[in-house]
Design brief:
The structure holds two protein chains of two kinds.
Chain A (H helix, E strand, L loop, with lengths): L1 H14 L2 H9 L29 E6 L16 H10 L1 E2 L1 E3 L5 E3 L2 E6 L5 E6 L12 H12 L8 H4 L2 E10 L2 E6 L7 H4 L5 E2 L16 E7 L3 E6 L12 E6 L3 H9 L5 E2 L4 H8 L4 E16 L9 H10 L2 H8 L4 E3 L22 H10 L11 E6 L6 H13 L4 E6 L5 H7 L3 E6 L4 H8 L14 H11 L4 H18 L2 E14 L2 E2 L19 E2 L3
Parallel strand pairs in A: 1-12, 1-13, 16-17, 16-18
Antiparallel strand pairs in A: 2-9, 3-4, 5-6, 6-8, 7-8, 10-11, 11-12, 13-19, 14-18, 14-19, 15-19, 20-21
Chain B lengths: L1 H31 L4 H6 L5 H10 L6 H13 L13 H36 L4 H14 L3 H15 L22 H28 L1 H8 L4 H29 L3 H7 L4 H11 L2 H29 L8
Helix pairs in contact in B: 1-13, 5-6, 5-8, 5-10, 5-12, 5-13, 6-8, 7-8, 8-10, 9-10, 10-13, 12-13
The chains are: A alpha+beta, B mainly alpha.
């Protein structure tokens, strides 16, 4: 460890990186002598236990180019979410198991009918010293829900009747809902549902209430923020945090290895393997960060026959898909979304490849390659996400073993999601993290906005509504399990795996949560990160 | 002189027509791309209702011809419009991208001309000699290496192994001069191939010129060899090189996407890539104006230089 530390310093000094050298000086001031003179923690060399205060951390993310903005309601990319999290807060945020955790909301209490929720706000301050009030909350949600706008969180806030919602006092918000909603806290944690200051509309120099305050921003290049001492959860350890944008993975890892950044988001599995044991940097794998699967459109041939769907579930060799398409960086799925999350039905046995059974089911459904009625399907894929094209090719060979001909069609990356929402019959898909409830409400109800599997069943909708009208958590869990059993048996999602999200960090960086899937509370939690000496 | 002025006017008016043609073509091609800015923005959350709403807020629901006409009317008053994605003025994008691109192009040209001419003249001193063979082999070999491979190689050796230079310009991509060390590797990569091609052109031109009757005549009159080489042969050898140089400068000013991507430099190439991926038509059109104008002006300049050095060859349009 000592030698790598030294070589890193050499790199910095020789590179003439003044910012880098400053950051190093600020994060310890110990130089090569090894005396812990600068730190306030005083725990000596590399003390893991007590976080040290001070220093600047630079974090590299893939970004959105010169069109980037700091409007938290326009959050779209991981870089946007990480920046919004540094500057702002939501009422709630998803924990590592996707259950809603209180943030700016200190607590919430529904009425008996579960359609009126009283939120008590925490004692939090904006960066300009004003308190966070109920008026800010109502303004923020009304801005997101503005019918003239197209903010991403708008659909999530749909259950709230914002006209009938009110602020009885500065620290209390009462949300009137359009229908009972037991999992309403998920709405408060929705992607992009940040609280901004009342009547804020210009975010060129945003005033937030998050752990860091705005310093400067160059779209597509860098956002510099500094510690907010009055943060409600306690001031961050870092003095400064800079988000830098590097779209290419090779640039992110090179910048990390060269000491230009201390944190690199989203590395490839091959990069991770190359550096995992080298000791030069740390590799952190956030398990369970991205669902990987195939969409089978249940309303059209051949997948309108549930025997064909089950046959396809049985064709998949999940481990082979993980190894081939994700270079082994992930774990297998059981055709259900949200492995390890709250309400996940882990009592359902893991499905294994069974080609004989698959062939038998296909024969029953009238697809028998031996008498010339073999099944041919077109599988849509696109280089839009890592491993999509590879997964399609692997599944093609697996399907061939069951007598199914798969024709792989590679589509346009920019329009892929829109093209495959209603078009085609069979396509590659993936999903970021969200609660199982959101997965169902966004994708599996009759009126869901992005129902790619065309799963529309009134009795299934009823189960969902019933769950939302059920106050008791155990009873609700039982209803979720019923929904998941149905999806496992005959749904339209063939979910073969969950990919790791891979981060790299300099050896001096401490406090990165290793168990937080991407986009959850502890992911990109730079207020908890600190820099050890050396 | 009036002959030259008429030629200039003719060339300029053709140039304006060329730019207008390019703009119309770029607009048509962008429109022909699958999907629009609303679909690209919606990404993996293609809620049709939201896409329709985005389309409305971007005015994409108006007919394409109408949007092009509006944009062209704005252009005549010097207004390039605003980005569909961010709503910020396109001129802001262009000036932001032009800075780093100009810095890279200027540095590359400043080194390219003396190095390429020097190598070419050196190699031509004795055709087939040891120096010539060494330079010719080396330039051919380097020319064969793609920029991306060369860039990766240089990063691994100089930045990651030796630790002498920063591997990327991350965090300084829009103002690389604030941290000049980040420019060394990108400029080396940019120089590599043009140095090879132009030095080879200079060498060939020099060999031809030195073998021409006027050089022999000059030598017979006792003009020193150095003077023959630099004052008589070189200007003739430079005419073809000048045109290649203009093409190189055009290439540099177009934003060399490979180099910008590899080293995280926010130049025009990166902005173009992002704009095409986002289907941000006003930004794409703005860049087309810049690239079109630059190309026309540079070629005009090159022809002027060529006419100046070797009037007899005429202007190769």
């Amino acid at each position: 460890m000592r030698t790598t530390g030294t070589s890193r310093r050499t790199v910095l000094a020789a590179g003439g990186g003044t910012a880098a050298a400053l950051a190093l000086a600020a994060c310890g001031g110990s130089g090569s002598g090894g005396s812990a003179s600068g730190g306030t923690g005083g725990s000596g060399e590399g003390g893991d236990a007590t976080p040290r205060s001070g220093g600047k951390l630079r974090a590299a993310f893939a970004g959105g180019g010169a069109g980037e903005t700091l409007d938290p309601h326009l959050t779209n990319l991981f870089a946007d979410a990480a920046r919004a999290k540094a500057l702002f807060d939501k009422l709630a945020e998803f924990g590592s198991d996707m259950s809603a955790q209180p943030r700016l909301a200190e607590r919430w209490e529904p009425n008996d009918a579960l359609d009126r929720w009283t939120i008590t706000l925490r004692d939090a301050l904006w960066h300009d010293g004003k308190p966070v009030t109920a008026a800010d909350v109502l303004y923020s949600y009304r801005r997101i829900a503005d019918p003239g706008q197209a903010f991403r969180a708008k659909a999530a806030l749909e259950p709230i009747d914002l006209q009938a919602s009110e602020a009885p006092d500065d620290r209390t918000v009462v949300f009137q809902l359009k229908r009972p909603y037991a999992d309403f806290p998920n709405v408060m944690a929705a992607f992009g549902a940040y609280i901004v200051q009342d009547s804020a509309a210009d975010f060129t120099e945003p005033v937030g209430c998050g752990p860091f305050r705005f310093v400067s921003f160059t779209p597509g290049e860098s956002l510099l923020v500094s510690r907010f001492d009055d943060y409600w959860e306690g001031a961050p350890h870092l003095d400064e945090l800079e988000f830098v944008i590097a779209d290419e993975e090779s640039a992110r890892i090179n910048a990390l290895l060269g000491g230009q950044v201390e944190y690199a988001h989203e590395l490839n599995p091959a990069t991770a393997r190359a550096h995992e044991t080298g000791g030069r940097i740390q590799i952190i794998r956030l398990a369970n960060s991205a669902m990987q699967g195939f969409v089978l459109k249940t309303d059209r041939a051949p997948f309108d026959d549930k025997r064909v769907r089950e046959a396809f579930f049985l064709i998949a060799d999940r481990q082979e898909l993980i190894d081939g398409a994700l270079s082994g960086a992930g774990e297998i799925g059981n055709d259900l979304f949200g492995k390890g999350y709250q309400y996940y039905a882990d009592a359902i046995p893991q499905r294994e490849q069974d080609l004989d059974r698959a062939r038998a089911l296909l024969r029953e459904a009238g697809h028998d390659p031996d008498n010339g009625t073999g099944l041919t399907v077109t599988l849509d894929t696109s280089p839009v996400a890592t491993g999509f094209v590879e997964a399609a090719e692997i599944f093609k060979t697996q399907a061939a073993q069951a007598g199914v001909t798969v024709e792989v069609k590679v589509g346009n990356a920019e329009t892929y999601w829109s093209d495959t929402l209603d078009g085609g019959m069979f396509s590659c898909t993936r999903s970021g993290t969200m609660p199982i409830e959101s997965h169902i409400s966004q994708r599996l109800l009759t009126d869901s906005p992005t129902n790619a599997t065309q799963w529309r069943h009134a009795d299934f909708d009823d189960l969902y509504q019933q769950a939302q009208a059920t106050r008791d958590e155990t009873e609700r869990a039982a209803l979720y399990e019923r929904m998941q059993r149905r999806l496992h048996a005959e749904g339209g999602f063939l979910i073969w795996g969950f990919a790791d999200w891979i981060l790299g960090a300099a050896n001096s960086v401490r406090g990165i949560a290793g168990d937080a899937p991407a986009n959850t509370l502890d992911w990109a939690r730079f207020d908890r990160v600190w820099l050890a000496e050396g | 002189m009036s002959d030259r002025r008429a030629w200039l006017v003719r060339r300029l008016s053709v140039g304006v027509l060329q730019i207008a043609g390019v703009l119309a073509l770029v607009f048509l091609l962008t429109e022909a791309l699958p999907g629009d800015a609303a679909v690209a923005l919606a990404g993996d959350h293609p809620d049709p209702e939201r896409i329709a709403r985005i389309r409305e807020t971007m005015n994409l629901d108006e007919p394409a011809a109408e949007r092009l006409a509006q944009w062209a009317a704005g252009l005549l008053t010097g207004d390039l419009g605003t980005s569909l994605v961010s709503g910020r003025p396109v001129t802001g994008y262009l000036t932001a991208g032009l800075g780093p691109t100009l810095v890279l192009a200027a540095l590359t040209m400043a080194l390219l001309v003396p190095v390429a001419v020097g190598l070419g003249v050196l190699a031509a001193r004795r055709e087939g000699g040891r120096t010539d063979r060494l330079i010719s082999t080396a330039t051919l070999a380097v020319y064969a290496v793609p920029e991306f491979a060369l860039g990766v190689l240089l990063v691994v050796v100089f930045a990651l192994q030796l630790g002498r230079l920063p591997p990327t310009a991350v965090g300084h991509g829009s103002d690389p001069l604030a941290e000049p060390a980040v420019l060394v590797l990108p400029v080396l990569v940019l120089l590599a191939r043009p140095v090879c091609s132009i030095s080879r052109l200079v060498r060939a031109g020099m060999i031809d010129a030195l073998a021409a009757p006027y050089s022999a005549q000059a030598r017979r009159y006792g003009v020193p060899a150095g003077r023959v080489r630099w004052a008589h042969a070189l200007p003739n050898a430079l005419a073809p090189a000048a045109q290649q140089l203009a093409r190189t400068l055009d290439w540099l000013l177009g934003g060399v996407i490979v180099v910008e991507t590899l080293f995280v430099i926010q130049g025009l190439g990166t902005i173009l890539m992002d704009a095409v991926a986002a289907r941000d038509i006003p930004v794409i059109q703005g860049l087309a104006v810049v690239f079109g104008t630059l190309t026309v002006l540079l070629n005009l300049g090159a022809d002027l230089v060529a006419r100046h050095f070797a009037p007899r060859t005429g202007a190769a349009a």
